[in-house]
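Can you make up a protein sequence with its C-alpha cells?

===
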Amino acid sequence: MDQAAPDHRPEQDHSGLRRRQTVKRAIVSNQRGFTLLEVMIAFAILAFILGSVFITQSASLQSSGRARQVIIATNLARNFITERELLYENRPFDKIETKQAGTFPAPNDQFKWKIEIEEVDFAPLTGMLLKANESSGQMNGEQASMLLKFFEKYLKDSVRRMTVTIEYPDGKAASTLTFTELLINYDAEFAGG
C-alpha cells in the first residue's frame, strides 16, 4: 500500500498574493497618460512662446543695428562739419563751392555725404525789427530803415548756411541725417552800400 507521503509543506496563503495583484491593477488602471489633445495644446503654447521670443529678439537686433548706423553717421557728420569749418575758415564765401557730394573713405565707404552752402535770407528779421521800432517809436522810420539795411547787408555778406546730409544704409533702403551749421566770416566789413 503505497500511500503517497503526506506533503509536509505548509499550506500557502494565496490571499496575500491576490491582494497585491488587485492593488497593482488598481494603481495601473488609475495611471493614465496625456491625451493627444493635451499634448497638441502644450506644443501650441510652446510654439507661441518661442515665436514671441524669436520676434522680440529679431526686432531687438534690427533696432541695435539701426542705432549703430545712426551713431556712425552722426560721428562722421560731426567730423566732416569740423573739417569743413576749418577748411573754409579764412576763405571768402565766393571762393567756396556751393554744392558738393562724395563718399567717405573705407571702412565707411557705404556712407555718402552731400553739402550745400547757401545765403541766409535776413529780410524777415530786419522787417520784424523795423516793425518793432515803429511800434516803440525810439528812432524815426527812415533812420531805422537805413541802419537795418546796413545790418542786413552785413549779415548777408558774413553768414552762410551749410547743410550737410549723410546717407547711410538702413536695411534694404537708405536713410539720411541732415545737419545745419552756420559759417561766419568774421572779416566781413560793416559798411553800407
Q: What stands out?
A: Helices lie at 15-30, 36-88, 123-136, 141-158. The CA atoms of residues 61 and 67 lie 10 Å apart. The mean pLDDT is 81.
